[in-house]
Each structure stands twice: as structure tokens, then as C-alpha cells.
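Technical note accompanying the year-one report. For the benefit of new consortium partners, we illustrate the data format agreed upon in the data management plan: each record pairs a sequence with a C-alpha cell string. No post-processing was applied to the example shown here.
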Amino acid sequence: MCLTSQIQRERERERERMEKENSNASAEVMRNKQVIYREKVQGSLKETHLEVRTSSERPKADKDSGAIMVKNLYLACDPYNLHLIKFSTQLGSTVSGYGVARVLESGHPNFKKGDLVLGLTRWEEYSLITAPKTCFKIEHTDVPLSYYTGLLGMPGLTAYAGFFEVCSPKKGDTVFISAASGAVGQLVGQFAKLFGCYVVGSAGSKEKVDLLKNKFGFDDAFNYKEELDLDAALK
């Protein structure tokens, strides 16, 4: 399947889903499914650290409150979410993260009902965003909205700015990327390949190394956990 056909199919699925959501809006109004941080994380995040609850109360954005109430459509699930959970989320509260949402109620002059936004929200069906300055309107909807949680969202912008604005690469340069299988690293690698660079990445498992070399197009990759001398590995 070509990329254009895939994008068209994803957009069609999004339209069908939104039409279904609109028709069921009255039935959903009293339900808000949420992902709650229930148990303190010591090491790796496990399923038992989180809990899905359904609240009977939906948030509301009062007129002139400066807040917006949104229905979350897509939520990013990336490594940085663990940092947010560990250090910025209180036990018993809803997990936060970046996502794509549709405005249902607005008490802010810059947003109106129906606007699509990208920004910091919460892992729940409906969220009250009291500081909409963290949100940006999505003006271009000719691509699947899910792309705004990755390539066209925070990971993509970070990768683009870091590579092109900070790194200032030249065609033919050798580019090394640590944490190369992460949300940002994999995009930096693909930008570098498109730019004509020789790309090497490091990751923490054999599976991730295989992913870099066989799916993301890196010229070479290695597992840093298996290397006794990183300087030698980079040579």
C-alpha cells in the first residue's frame, strides 16, 4: 500500500469515528474514563501502577474562565511519559501527557467549539485545560490527526530543531544518535538519512537495534549495554 492511500484510509477512519462520537455525545455526557496513577513507581512502569476508572462527572469550562473543555482524540505514549508520571503526577490523580483533542466548550477568546488542538492534556476522555497557552490550534487536517502526537508533534519538532537548527549538518556527515529508538531519536535518524548523512544509533536491546537497522534505515547500530568500550564502538 502506498503512503498516500494509507493516509487517505486513516483520514476516512477518523471521519467515521468522529461522526459516531457526535451521534453518541448525549449518551457519553455523564461518563469520563480516566487513567489514574495509583501506586508509586520505583523502577519500570507496570500495569499495576495505573488504574482505569470511570467518573460520573464531566469537566465544564465556564464562560470567560480562560479554560477550555476538550474531548481527547489521540494521546501520545512515549518514554517521557514515565518522567511525567514519576515526578509530576500525584498519587490518585489523572496521568498527563501530550495529545490531540477537540474543543467542546470554551471560556477562552482564542478557542471556539469544534477547534482541534494539540497540547498538554490528561489521559481521560474529557479534560478541562485551565492553561490553554500550552495548546496550539491544528490548522492542517489533510493528514491523520494521530501524526500530531509524533512526527508533527513534540517529538517531531524536537527532532527537527535539534538536528537542523542545532546540529547544522552537512551532506555526507556521520551522525551518531543515542537513545536512537526513542520517539525523538528515530526521527532524527530518518531526517539525517533523508539529508544524505551516514547514520549510526545506539539502543538498549537487540530488538531495538534490529528495528533501527531494518525498519528505520540506520546505516549501523549497536547495543550500548553490550559494549565495554563505547569509544571503540563508535569508531
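Partners are asked to follow this layout when depositing records. The first helix runs from residue 3 to 23.
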